[in-house]
Amino acid sequence: MRHPLIMPVILLMFVTGGSQVVVGPRSPTRSSAVAITVIPAPGSPRARPDRHVRVMVAKGTLTSVDVSAGGARVPGRFDRARRAWRSTWTLTPGTEYVVSASASPARHGDPPSRVVTRFRTRAAPHAFGIRQAIPSPGETVGVGMPIILTFTGPVRDRAAVERALAVQLGSLGSSDSPGSRLEGAWRWMADDQVVYRPRTLWPARRRVVVTAHLAGVRAAPRTFGTADHILSFSVGRRQTSIVNTVTHQMLVHRDGRLVQRMAISAGKGSTREYTTTSGVHLTMDKGDPVRMVSPGRKKGEPGYYDLMIDHAVRISNSGEYVHALDNVWAQGKVNVSHGCVNARPDQAAWFYDSSLRGDPVIVTGTDRRLEWWNGWGFWQLSWDEWRKGSALRDPSALALPLATKWVYRGF
């Protein structure tokens, strides 16, 4: 007859908020196995998706932890002592997870332990995700380009959403996952929109991957992200333009070399409306042609115009463009426009063809400053000012003025 104390046994213990599973033979003199705790509890049919998987041992060392969901591996990391493991991101709603973990004991001679558990997360009552992302997937942009994410609904927990957003740099032409990070910060523009800007301009000719780890993130009461979102785009050559409204010249530099000198005419400055804004603009979009209509004026009133303008590159939301116009008599000599920067048709066509969204256009010489919230004037803020809009730094500083309505101020 076998003695009951030397028979192999498996002891399964459930504890509040998690599980402990010990695998190994019992000893008549001491506990011989290390207990592994898994949270959420095994078999849970409605685990909270806005939490993390955690695996822990009170004594001993975790030797391996594998967590999968729908056949895909769930990333996570150990603490320094390898007594705890935590998933990197929150969990996908309505999904089954499998956790497999092993641990070695603290005392020499004790057997190792292993646990395999399953649980399922509860479904999201209301789904949350990204409605629009700028830049477009695969787009090549200029070195000043912001990342703009617009969500499907208002975000109440901005910090939780912001923590789920990751921006990484890679090399063009490489299939490897990007691993280097660039210092940057998100700033909330509205309840449903957040914008990322690096501290300095993007390095040229690099690949950027934005991963919104929104699965399981609780954005608002009963509202959870249901999937992650990945956006990949490229930064092209470094092109910057300097418009001097005093000398009536525009200089275009590419990768540190002057590639174009353009005589221009800027806003005539007779009113604030007709004054070109000084500051760091970004090219936003372009059209050939673009219809420009005088704002606030009806046909027949003084100052009314309704024109089709060629090779127009927009640089703000207050109607400013760099565009073609056949008023060569003024270009290089005097400012006569309604606020736009106009150039000789052939040079304007060159600038149109060579521009990417996000190219910096720096205007100097006027007494009207570009507002940082006008179009993509984000580089108007200092780095410290920009970071104040992050929910992870100073939530009290998120109040913004109303964005300028996009109007055509014309030529």
UniProtKB/TrEMBL annotation:
Q: Which domain of life is it from?
A: Bacteria
Query: A single GO molecular function, which one?
Result: peptidoglycan L,D-transpeptidase activity
Q: Which UniProt keywords apply?
A: Acyltransferase, Cell shape, Cell wall biogenesis/degradation, Peptidoglycan synthesis, Transferase
List the lineage, top down. Answer: Bacteria, Bacillati, Actinomycetota, Actinomycetes, Streptosporangiales
Pathway annotation: Cell wall biogenesis; peptidoglycan biosynthesis
Q: Output the CDD domains linked to this UniProt entry.
A: YkuD_like (cd16913)
GO process terms (BP): cell wall organization; peptidoglycan-protein cross-linking; regulation of cell shape
What do the Gene Ontology cellular component annotations say?
extracellular region
- Residues of the active site are 323, 340
Q: Where is the L,D-TPase catalytic domain?
A: 239-364
Name its species. Sphaerisporangium album
This protein's name: L,D-TPase catalytic domain-containing protein
Q: Write down the InterPro entries for this protein, in alphabetical order.
A: Big_10, LD-transpeptidase, LD_TPept_cat_dom, Transpep_catalytic_dom
Pfam families the record matches: Big_10 (PF17964), YkuD (PF03734)
Q: PANTHER family, from UniProt?
A: L,D-TRANSPEPTIDASE, L,D-TRANSPEPTIDASE YCIB-RELATED
